Queue: 4 jobs
Job 1
Amino acid sequence: MKILIADDESIIRMGLKAMLQELGYQVIAAANGREALQMARRHQPDLAILDIKMPYTDGLQAAKVLSQSQPMPILILTAFSESDLIEKASDLAIHGYLIKPIKPAELNAAITVARKRFQESQELAARSTELQEKLAARKLIERARGKLMQNGLSEDQAYRAIQLFARDNQQTMAQAAKAILGDS
């Protein structure tokens, strides 16, 4: 697994990199948020660990951009446990908040949990999209059925007509409904 780390303190960055490599991860290191975003585009990491306070682009800004452009599990790493920073971080699509200094076992556990939570959120988003598409298709079919019923067909006859149209034209029911509605 390829992990992107970003911390403006070189000693922390090198220590974190060594710790992650000992845990068996491939590591890409950046000195600030802007560099982290560039490296993310270039190297396509599987997970990001971002320091919250960095020059140019801070960890929260970088996390926001990454979650929109390249969704991945994101952990925020910081020496600060200020409640306003925690609140800002919790409003983002991040999967963990770690306070320095971090131990290898804590880091590995956080990575495992972050990956699992990210996978679950991706599955929920896909399911939500699927349900929205099914609902949109159902609405189309209902509108097409209503149009056919205005032309004198019963509810069952209208539904059957849409089915036959879809089968005869090798289309989904939604595509058939759209074609029927386009005839108006």
Job 2
Amino acid sequence: MDHFTYKNSALFAEEVAITEIAKAVGTPFYCYSTATLVRHFRVFKEAFADLNPLICYAVKANSTLGILKTLANEGSGADVVSAGEIHASLAAGIMPEKIVFSGVGKTHDEMVYALSKDIFQFNVESESELLLLSDAAHTLNKIASIALRVNPDIAPDTHAKISTGQKESKFGVPIKDAIALYAKAAKLPGIKVQGVSVHIGSQLTNLAPFASAFTRIVKLVKELRKNGHEITTLDLGGGLGIPYGNQEAPPLPVAYAEIVKSATKGINCQLIFEPGRLLVGNAGILVTKVIYVKHSDERIFVIVDAGMNDLVRPALYDAYHDIIPVHVNPDAPTELVDIVGPVCETGDIFATGRLLKLPKEGDLLAFRTAGAYGASMASTYNARPLIAEIMVNGSNYATLRHRQTYDELIHRDKLPDWL
């Protein structure tokens, strides 16, 4: 469910007409709904109410401060994968004791920064990382509380580029090596072993891989405790999918919660979850204007002013986004069209052979379910400025990030003396 609905054939975000925002800020732009974001967080939290988990929003999904602050106000923590995401989370009011640092390539400087902020947990992904973290913590006279991210070798039944739980993946420690590495971690200075972590992939629409992975991880927790480790946290990651149009029908959080409760019954750990897309995906849309409608011998191209630099998911993952008119014209003919952007790449295609009420040049379209991995993965390719991000709250809206100017686009560039 989201709060982007039609009123008298016009698309609204909560109580604000999308056309009103477009007139004020131009196109393209991202628009987020506070009510949708808050509702998704509360639905997830309520599914686990009796377990009182630590919910750490996966900041990589959307790191805009307005998103982070809204979730911080709801009590969310943060799952981060860089020092920059730690900085943003703290700036938004997320407490360091609710921050978990994941990621396969943490640098020494990032470790030092995280240790200086006294974050809750490092999810360590390799022996080399463990040794480097020990050295950093010992040098600073700090204690790094860790969980090893364990790769359970579970096929998650999702797109190959967002699959992280198989043995071929770069992520995590092979489960067969975990016992030995925990034994080594327990002897290292500056290291406190406190948990186990697992994350098998993103956009999962089948609960069976979760059940298999969690069963294996709980078995590991029991073995570690028998070996004398005090395991008090269990980070089960994120990955529960969301609907992108009618393409997928993922399970609800309450069904996911039943899988978790069944697998972890009696384990007596502080559970940690890292939802990202689940919280913010349906809370955002991308609004774009039709520049041209181009007819060729075999195709109709609807060329819009948003490009793959603004929303890369279709080009990167062959991802589907439902595309709808901002104003419905019932008299327009329905046609099969290709919706494409202006970027100078053949892959700048949002939809091929999509059945759509044929728009006119100047009409607005909205790409639904664009709140996750839209703005956060955007670039300035083709020297195209980053677009505006707007948040709606009831009948009010505000700019979270303004559209980049051309001067801002090049402000980091420096000419060498000889030029």
Job 3
Amino acid sequence: MASTKDVDIELIKKLRAKTNAGILDCKNALIESECDIDKAIHILREKGIAKATKKMGRETGEGVIMAYIHPGDQLGSLVELNCETDFVARTDEFKELAKEITMQVVAYDPITVDRESIPKDIIEEERSIYEEQAKRMKKPEEVQKKIVESKLEKFYKDVVLLEQDYFRDPKVTIGDLVKEKISVIGENIVVRRFIRFQVGE
């Protein structure tokens, strides 16, 4: 593990600019990661998410409805993002998160906010397709079950907004992004609903 003396101040500044974390937190993360900035970001993200989890579940009665129209005016989306107070709802940081999510909806075309909201008939249809595909592989039954579950997890990641990779950084999911903002802002944040529009659909 690197010592305090080994951590370059410029590296601390760089990490702070990327994460908006405190100087001491950045220094400790760099020490823990042996001055690997990507690992340090991951360490800070994990700690931020841990703090954010405590705030999740609080009532969210305020928020914004954000719109985004993609260049060319053929695609667009509306997202309702909720928080606890009107003060936070008016901040640029909260609105920026809402804007990023509207762009995510246009780019990745999710069907629900979370996997619990997916209609059961859609899940069953997907499962039956994967089961048929697994049977054709002529693998043992236990292996077939694992293949089906693996394909379902991939399906969730493709269509569930909070489980999708963030379009700006595939190392981060939208759920992670929301949790990071919860830890920074200090209030619970909930993606309530969204709708995507495409000309001709």
Job 4
Amino acid sequence: MNDLFDFNYEITLLSSLIFSEKSIKNIDSDIFYYPMHKSICSTLLLLEQQNLPRDEIIIHNHLIKTMKLDENLVASSMMDVLSATPSSNFQAYIDRLEELKRIRNVKSSLLNIQIDIQENKTANEIEASLLSLSEKIVTKSGVELFKMVPASYVEAKESDFITKSFIPIPKKTVSIFSAGGGTGKTSLLLQLAMHYLHENQEEKAFCWLSEDPLGLTKHRLNHVIGGLYPLGAETLHRLILSDDLTFPTLLEQNRAITINSHFYKMKMMLKEFKLIILDPLIAFYGGDENNNAQAKLFMQLFTKWASDEDKTIIFIHHSTKNTSQSRGASAFVDAARAVYEIEKIKDEDGKEVDTTKRKITLTKDNYRASKYFGGFSKQIQVFPNEDSTKNHQPAFIVEYTSDEELGIQ
């Protein structure tokens, strides 16, 4: 791939446009570098204007008969496009090609300025060229740096939460549960998922618990339902699990951090789920655990996903040794809107007491979850009492595997 254009991105986007039923009227054909790809995109835009289908034969005939393009070149280019795998989420490809177009434009302008220097033009003329370039970048890039909205236009809204009566979690954002090993964090989050599903009868929840086999997770569910939360038995057909190997969201290539394409595939696969629990955070990361810049980028991907698609995303995160505090870069916690820490209950001598309960502490509360939590710390029963556990076998649970879909070996 050249730094200024990407053949594979272009054919993938064109393939996606041909097979998509979405409107494409706002797409600019100039984002394509290759002339034939521009012509194909222009043809697709014309077909939309005329309410005609994006049919291969119609496209082929228009390119040859109307645009007078070489028949062999058209056939070869159309074969490349139609053999590419279309994506239902093609906005990422548009964004990338627009970015490359802007880089090409800037480079072209800089080359013109370099020619001005070589031709011994005056300082005023060179400065004028630089100012003209700056103005073009600001006014014609088509990219809005940030939104500006008058306060009078903004509708006041309180933050909304799921599972308010259990452990309140803010909607449309990312929260973190931090704990050490053996504290029952997975059992607690499974219980939370069942509470959510009981309260939202039409929704589904997805838990990617990569550290535990499905059989162990089912055993935990049976245990909790049998002696602690029997209503959870009604939710299991909407509680979808995976124990597959995870993938790193961030990849390092040529000393630069890039975003793994599997992240976008995961978003597509989980479109129907409103609650998503990922365990552990570090297994999905891929960057330097103590690098704040990388951690910030990672968290921004998930917070934007949650906000844009109305998801409630919860990460289970390992704590630092002998504490319940989140380990690694502070940017993980900074980006989360609520952080809960889970601890065993101990006496003054450090001996664990009441092994069925855990102390849950709300250590970060941007959206006032404490209003529903009843403060910032309380004890919650995570495991049933042994004498209350019944031999209860819930109906079934759905196993969700993603190896084939995400291409994970």
